[in-house]
Design a protein that fits this description.
CATH architecture of the largest domain: 3-Layer(bba) Sandwich
Order of helices and strands: EHEEEHEEEEEEHEHEHEEEEEEEH
Low-confidence stretches: none
CATH class of the largest domain: Alpha Beta
Distance between the termini: 15 Å
Number of strands: 19
Helix content: 10-25%
Number of domains: 2
Largest sheet: 7 strands, mixed
Radius of gyration: 21 Å
CATH superfamily of the largest domain: FAD/NAD(P)-binding domain
CATH topology of the largest domain: FAD/NAD(P)-binding domain
């Protein structure tokens, strides 16, 4: 019987594990792929406090893991398939095991939606990015493309003009879905150009992004556009598929919590990018991990 199981080993889950280890809770972390979460899609992070000049994402995650390891918290590579209510506790099911546990922290994260075009996967971290705040400073004086037409795409495109020589927004429709205020800001920004009714069909380059192939879906014509970076904002998908009909999710599948990170299930908390919220950054994922751990240990103390 575990005191607590953390589902996910991204920054939120690992921070929760760190705090739970310090609280001397018998804790297990379950991670279906590898530690790191969305952060591993970027080669480095420049806005994490304490690391002027930045730090590689791999090194940062290794440091997180080392802290957790030193506290005796185990990380097991297993994918959770369901959470079930047991007799006075919960059962966490994976393909190969059933773990009885008193309380749970869900930190299963989210993943950016891919375009699914040729060259995208190969060039992730080599010009293809899903986070302007993380990678924008790496593209100083370069020509970059932003793909998308929602609030996030326009917000990030405006942000990227602080660094890039030119930002070109490519959108598959004639009109943007973003708020009117954001559209006005983007259209009045001289560092941004627009290509509408167009889709990206391929991203290419030898060892890094060099150009993209695009298609005008109205004229049915194809062309190439030289660039050194492609930022894709087609939305993010939370890894909450295993939670359907088990707790309250919003229409997009993000977990709804209260201000103390409690979910609709008693004794189950959520933190990080799987939560319904506004800001998706490593720093606030870590903060939520600490909050969730505190809430979980408080819950366990009250149950005694």
């Amino acid at each position: 019987m575990y005191d607590l199981i953390i589902i996910g080993a991204g920054p939120a889950g690992l921070t929760a594990g760190l705090y739970c280890g310090r609280y001397k809770l018998n804790t297990l972390i379950l991670e279906k792929v590898s530690c790191g979460g969305q952060i591993v899609l970027s080669s480095g992070i420049e806005n994490f406090p304490g690391f002027p000049g930045g730090i590689s994402t791999q090194e940062l995650i290794e440091r997180f893991k080392k802290q957790v390891d030193l506290l005796g918290v185990n990380i097991v590579s297993e994918e959770v398939s369901a959470i079930e209510k047991g007799s006075g506790n919960y059962l966490v099911r994976t393909e190969s095991n059933i773990y009885p546990v008193k309380t749970i922290i869900i930190a299963c994260g989210a993943l950016p939606q891919r375009l699914g075009v040729k060259g995208e996967e190969v060039l992730i971290g080599r010009g293809v990015s899903y986070c302007a705040t993380c990678d924008g400073p790496l593209f100083k004086n370069k020509e970059i493309v932003v793909v998308g037409g929602g609030d996030k795409a326009l917000e990030e495109a405006i942000f990227l003009t602080k660094y890039a020589k030119k930002v070109t927004i490519i959108h598959r429709r004639k009109e943007f879905r973003a708020a009117g205020v954001l559209q006005d800001k983007a259209k009045n920004n001289h560092g941004i150009e627009f290509i509408m009714d167009t889709v990206v069909e391929e991203i290419s380059g030898e060892n890094k992004v060099e150009k993209i192939k695009i298609k005008d879906i109205i004229k049915n014509t194809k062309s190439e556009l030289a660039c050194q970076g492609v930022f894709i904002f087609a939305g993010i998908t939370p890894g909450t598929g295993f939670l359907k009909n088990q707790l309250n999710l919003n229409q997009l599948g993000f977990i709804i919590t209260d201000e103390n990170l409690k979910t609709s299930l008693e004794g189950v908390f959520a933190c990080g990018d799987c939560r319904q919220k506004e800001l998706y950054q490593v720093i606030n994922a870590c903060s939520e991990g600490a909050e969730a751990a505190y809430a979980a240990q408080k819950y366990l103390l009250e149950k005694k």
